[in-house]
Give the backbone structure.
Amino acid sequence: MASPFPSIQSFFSKEVPPSSQEQNAESSSPDKPGDGFTSSEVEAVLNPLSHHWEPSRQYEACPISLLQSGPHDYQISGRIVNFAENFRDQGFHFLVVTDGSGAIAVRLYYAKESDYQLLFGQRVTIWTTFIADSTGASTGSIPFCASATTLYPGRNGATHIIVHDDVLDSDGDRILRRPLECGLKEYEYLPALMTLKAFLSTGYDLGEGKILVCVRSVGPRRTVQSKKFQHALSMVEVGIFDDTAMCVLKLWEDKVPSTKSWVPNQTILLISKPTHKIRGTSPELGIGHSSMIDVDPKFPDADWLRNEVKSMTKRQSVYIPFPSHTWNAEHAMNGPGRTLFTIADVEDQVRHPEPSVDFTGKLNVIITEMKLMEHWRKGTLCCFECCGIPLYANKPVATCKNCELRRDLALNPRIIGAMIDESGMITASKLVWCDDAWSQLFFGSATDELEEANSDPNLIEQSWEDLTAIGTDALRELEELLLYSRITLTFGWSSKLERICILGVEW
């Protein structure tokens, strides 16, 4: 009589050999008994993060400052302000996470070290079941870090972490960017915040200083042989500045990938308790165990610095790309709506209190200053800006020494000093020129006179790039021909750039 209860073997599926060769080899032998685990169960153990995680219980979403020590099921959201991968070779990553109200130290145990790519400013969500007091968690002197927790993703189904990859300007990218000690309602100042100049002078001795800086440049990744650790270390130098000073921030090893998303003259960093060293005569900053970096924080001082950086960049910018899709150059030069302005008329219109709009017109001016030969001797005839660093050459192509990429250069607008008309003067270095306008300026009606003065009529071609190929004698004669010449400029006012852009030149 058959048993009414199923056998235990009926609950397990038969393991199928992975290859046909093994099937042929084992076809004559009896089936080998399995170990009771399916391939999906084995994969879930060996690679636990490959499967979608679902909370197995109810977790309470709680700000970090309100966390209570002991066994509690908490869901914590924040951003990474410091971290150390494979902390002291103990098999876990060490993270410091803040949400604007407080900080928490996190030990993140992993199956594989490469399971997580940690970056400064990343948004994370943590599910934990126990909160410890930071005094017993070896958090050292990390500011406002009163709590600690330990996570075992994949091993303990009750603890987990998700590292979010937010799209720029998305909802997730905009939240949790308020720094510590920043009041929401009545903000007056951020305690211990000082200028970069004050920190480099004496502020680093206090041990509690904070600096608010902007990224100026991001250097290439370099490998340095360490005498202390007896092996090679990767390092990147980040140029930082504010309205008072500039210096270098050095990041090492696991911190290096964070710099890939930092944009020169845009990314703002709030650095708490940075390390300070003097190398020769130049100071260097770094990130220590108790340091914090808030990337693109949102509070009044950061907003002020962003506006100040825009103004500084506008004043000090070496190269501004021409907005080629804003106007129709042919229509502006030869169309029916051609208006002749004076320099004073343009200034009155762009400084009008009403919202400014883009417009085009013409200016009849005299070139009163030429610096063509001066910039040729300096090697700054052509220019570009790469990695936040000016790039100069006397050729239209050059290689950036920072990222080692080949860049196409533009003609330096500073080769013209000033232009005047009957109402005022304009500094030509503030103008944005298109390539056709440069060619029309140098090789318009002046071309005939120049070719008569030279024995070789092929010295000058109808392109500004040929300026880099002709000799100094021809350049000097061209400079003399342009000096005190009267020309008509077809221009367009860009309200976005707040600059006059030259669309064409008529003689």
Notes: The chain is about 20% helix and 35% strand. Residues 25-29, 445-451, 457-461 have pLDDT under 50 and may be disordered. The first helix runs from residue 20 to 25. The longest strand covers residues 70-84.
